[in-house]
């Protein structure tokens, strides 16, 4: 089994920035895509950003132009640079790796944006 651990979350004022990282307990092979999801209180988990093995990216409309997903090649895990944060970005952010036959999820990192 693979354990994913997110880091870089925290409390920031509106307009500020945070960078999320994801660490895996072991290298995962056959990754098709990796990404970040988030879940706010009382809401469903939603896609924030995803990057495929070919390097294609996709973002939720609400974060386009503010968030950037990248791949940590040495670790084969995703990073998420979040700029111009808004209070509505407050949520638990989850790292996800989608490999052949399996999806792996982290435990989540809290991001709180104050107004």
Short description:
This protein is mostly beta strands and 115 residues long. It is built from no helices and 11 strands.
Tell me what the structure shows.
The chain is mostly beta strands. Helices cover 0% and strands 57% of the residues. The chain has strands spanning 4-7, 10-13, 18-24, 31-39, 46-52, 57-59, 67-72, 77-82, 91-99, 102-105, 109-114. The strands form two sheets. Strands 2, 4, 5, 6, 9, 10 and 11 form a seven-stranded mixed beta sheet that branches. Strands 1-3-8-7 form a four-stranded antiparallel beta sheet, with no helix packed on it. A hairpin with a 2-residue loop joins strand 9 (91-99) and strand 10. The mean pLDDT is 96.
Give me some keywords for this one.
115 residues, mainly beta, seven-stranded mixed beta sheet, four-stranded antiparallel beta sheet, 57% strand
In percent, how helical is the residue content? Answer: under 10%
Shape: globular
Annotation, overall tally of beta strands: 11
Q: Calculate the mean pLDDT score and round it.
A: 96
Radius of gyration computed on alpha carbons:
13 Å
Q: Helix- and strand-based class?
A: mainly beta
The string of secondary-structure elements, in order, is EEEEEEEEEEE
Summarize the main sheet: 7 strands, mixed
Number of helices: 0
């Amino acid at each position: 089994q693979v354990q994913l651990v997110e880091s870089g979350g925290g409390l920031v004022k509106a307009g500020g920035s945070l960078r999320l990282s994801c660490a895996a307990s072991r290298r995962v092979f056959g990754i098709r895509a990796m990404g970040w999801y988030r879940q706010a209180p009382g809401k469903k988990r939603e896609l924030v950003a995803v990057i495929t093995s070919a390097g294609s990216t996709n973002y939720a409309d609400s974060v386009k132009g503010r968030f950037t997903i990248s791949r940590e090649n040495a670790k084969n895990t995703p990073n998420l640079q979040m700029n111009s944060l808004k209070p509505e970005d407050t949520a638990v952010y989850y790292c996800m790796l989608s490999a052949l036959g399996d999806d792996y999820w982290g435990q989540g990192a809290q991001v709180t944006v104050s107004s």
